[in-house]
Fold this sequence. Notes:
Layout: E1 3-8, H1 14-27, E2 33-38, H2 44-48, E3 52-56, H3 68-78
Parallel strand pairs: 1-2, 1-3
Amino acid sequence: MPSILIIYDSSSGNTEKAAMLVAEGVKQVKGVQCTVKKVDDVSVDELTKVDGVIIGAAFTSSGGTATGAETTILSILQG
Length: 79
C-alpha cells in the first residue's frame, strides 16, 4: 500500500491546520496510507520507508524563511 508522510511545523497553528486538511484529502484516495507528524517527531528512518513526503513549512513574518526544522528535513531529503 502506498504511504504518504505529511510533515509540518507550525508556530501559530495555521500550518498544522493546513496539514490536517491535506491529510483528509490524501486519505480519500483508496489504498493510500497517510501519516501526519510534526517535524520534530520525524526520524530519518521514517523518511526512507514512505513513498511520498509532503512538507508544510511555517515561515517567519520577518524574512519568509523556513524554520530550522524544515531546513534539516529538506537537507536529509536532498541527500
